[in-house]
Write a structure and sequence with these properties.
Chain A: It holds the Pfam family 2Fe-2S_thioredx. The structure holds two protein chains of two kinds. Chain A has helices at about 5-15, 25-35, 40-50, 55-60, 85, 90-100, 150; strands spanning about 75-80, 105-110, 115-120, 130-135, 140. The longest helix of chain A is centred in the N-terminal third of the chain and has 12 residues, at about 25-35. Chain A is α+β, with helices and mostly antiparallel strands. Chain A has two domains: about 5-65, Arc Repressor Mutant, subunit A (Orthogonal Bundle); about 75-150, Glutaredoxin, CATH 3.40.30. In chain A, strand 2 and strand 3 form a beta hairpin. Chain B folds into three domains: about 20-235, NADH-ubiquinone oxidoreductase 51kDa subunit (Rossmann fold, 3-Layer(aba) Sandwich), CATH 3.40.50; about 245-325, Ubiquitin-like (UB roll), CATH 3.10.20.600; about 330-420, de novo design (two linked rop proteins) (Up-down Bundle), CATH 1.20.1440.230. Classes of the chains: A alpha+beta, B alpha/beta.
């Protein structure tokens, strides 16, 4: 049993709108908010809290791209690889970020600080090339390979 | 361009207004007018007469959609009816709804409340994509303010009309923006498209009559109620009413959102965005986002509305104008789109699930100069079998094939050159 009583009661509360099934995504987001990602054990506990099967809730967890079924770093960087970002030099920014962090898309730095994910389109075409960074999904851009500080702060 | 009903009151820094500020700027004038002076049927007629077309891409007349909902709901008998607001803006190149939700939440709430009154809905669910957390937060705060002021909730302004409103935050998937998938998402089902009929107007959310409208569509509604259908029609340069929030991006000097009369040309919009970047020439543009066909310099003066762009062989889509200059390789550009659509296929049907990764790989290979004889024919086969006139369960595959279809037609020589390992226009 790993979920906090607060998380569990928030999950129960979420079911008030449309019942347990409609609350499954809320439950996954609450778990992720508390734990950073959704482990098998947490998923099973969330399912038990709602009275649905783990398979039902996992069918959503594996569908939505922003539900993480494996651990992610402290800061998640969602780098846009859509056409508008590409046309504004997105590939050079991507290469520079990957080189600086030493990881590819879908990977986490060994120190657990950053996870890099490709995404399109983040609706930041007026600030292309753009990325969403951190728990608030803050929009940053236009990025150049030289101003990575905005993206990854004090990374090595 | 003096009349900007959608964005005229947005702050430069895009921070949302408090309810008190919004009311000082003239907000929430239309809702009391609607509830106290007009019947729901009269509102529907007014919006139909204003020529407001759905801004999510399909361009169906919003008033007609509402009328069909009322007719469908009449057959369903008493019980709940729903209005779902589509804030799952994920189409490549589209970034207009972000501004409307983040900076102008009360405008959207007022429009949604009027729409709910018109169609007889008692609950509004605003589905916002996960990546727009600032928008979801602004809307949640604004809904609470409106409830506290009696602009939402029970017996709104003494009219006897009850309405609740809430935000459903999604978790990232393009397909959630498809009308029937959006309904499934709110119900907690795996968000894949559903077969129609029955249409949502008859059987939508929880099997009840439901209307789904785009954020921009609803944000235009308060101004129509306040100033009338003729005024709204008069804002446009064509027969399709109002203004449009165009997003200009790609190879322009200053990518930006521009609210302009419906029917403004791509030439004017590109000029307003500072012209083609670095003094280059135009190669092509997509007028309405990732799923729309390419146009070229000869079509720069086509009025950007649904009818004229269709006639020109493309579509208005979301009004997201993506500009390619003469150094931007169309094979690479189409490849970026193909990769996106392949990644975002929900996997429900085979043409999309298997076809799109195949197309994406073929385009990647061509871009890298590693294409093989027959690749272009294979791409054309996908267009023919699963393209705009083909068969797949929803429109995702057809939309994904649209830029490829027009790319093969318009830039056949560039594709052929890639087969020989050379890119005549690309940066590489």
């Amino acid at each position: 049993m790993t979920l906090s009583p607060a998380t569990k009661s928030a999950i129960v509360e979420a079911a008030a709108h449309g019942g347990p099934k409609a609350a499954m995504l809320d439950a996954l987001k609450l778990v992720q908010q508390a734990e950073g990602w959704v482990s098998d054990a947490d998923l099973a506990e969330a399912a038990a809290t709602l009275g649905v099967t783990p398979a039902e809730i996992d069918s959503l967890a594996t569908f939505y791209s922003q539900i993480f079924r494996q651990p992610v770093g402290e800061t998640v960087i969602l780098l846009c690889d859509g056409l508008s970002c590409y046309l504004c030099g997105g590939d050079a920014v991507r290469d520079a970020v990957m080189q600086k962090l030493g990881i590819g898309f879908g990977e986490t730095t060994p120190d657990g600080k950053f996870t890099l994910i490709n995404i399109c389109c983040i609706g930041g075409c007026d600030r292309a090339p753009a990325a969403l960074v951190g728990p608030d999904r803050k929009l940053v851009g236009p990025l150049t390979p030289d101003d990575l500080a905005a993206l990854i702060g004090g990374a090595p | 361009m003096s009349e900007l009903p959608l964005t005229g009151r947005a702050r430069a820094d895009r921070s949302p207004h408090s309810l008190a500020e919004w009311q000082r700027f003239g907000g929430y004038q239309a809702l009391p007018q609607a509830l106290q002076r007009h019947s729901p049927a009269a509102i529907v007629a007014m919006v139909e007469a204003a020529g407001l077309r759905g801004r999510g891409g399909a361009g169906f007349l919003a008033g007609t959609k509402w009328r069909l909902m009322r007719e469908g709901a009449a057959k369903s008998g008493p019980g709940a009816r729903y209005l779902c607001v589509n804030g799952d803006e994920t189409e490549p190149g589209s970034f207009k709804d972000r501004l409307l939700m983040e900076a102008l939440p009360h405008q959207l709430i007022e429009g949604a409340a009027i729409a709910a009154y018109a169609v007889g809905a008692t609950e509004v669910i605003i589905l916002v994509r996960d990546e727009y957390r600032a928008g979801a937060a602004a809307l949640t705060r604004a809904i609470a303010e409106a409830e506290a002021a009696g602009l939402l909730g029970r017996d709104i302004l003494g009219s006897g009309f009850d309405l609740t409103m809430r935000v459903h935050a999604s978790a990232g998937r393009y397909i959630v923006g498809e009308e029937s998938a959006l309904i499934a998402a709110i119900e907690g089902e795996r968000p894949v498209p559903r077969h129609r009929p029955p249409y949502p107007a008859v059987s939508g959310l929880w099997g009840r009559p439901t209307t789904v409208n785009n954020v921009e569509t609803l944000s235009a509604v308060p101004s129509i109620i306040e100033h009338g259908a003729d005024w709204y029609l008069g804002l446009s340069r064509t027969e399709e009413g109002g203004t449009k929030l165009y997003g200009v991006s790609g190879c322009v000097a200053r990518p930006q959102l521009i609210e302009a009369p419906m029917g403004t040309s791509a030439r004017e919009l590109i000029e307003l965005a500072g012209g083609i970047r670095d003094g280059r020439a135009l190669l092509a543009f997509q007028p309405g986002g990732g799923a729309t066909g390419f146009l070229e310099a000869a079509e720069l003066d086509v009025p950007m509305d649904f009818a004229h762009l269709k006639q020109a062989g493309s579509s208005l889509g979301t009004g997201a104008l993506i500009v390619l200059d003469d150094r931007a390789c169309p094979v690479a550009a189409i490849g970026r789109h193909a990769r996106f659509y392949a990644r975002e296929s929900c996997g429900l049907c085979t043409p999309c699930r298997d076809g799109l990764p195949w197309v994406s790989k073929l385009l990647d290979a061509l871009e890298a100069g590693q294409g093989q004889r027959g690749d272009i024919e294979l791409l054309q086969m996908h267009v023919d079998l699963a393209g705009p006139s083909g068969r797949s369960f929803c429109d995702l595959m057809a939309g994904a094939m649209t830029p490829l279809k027009s790319g093969l037609q318009r830039f056949g020589e560039i594709f052929a050159a890639h087969l020989e390992g050379a890119c005549p226009v690309g940066r590489a």
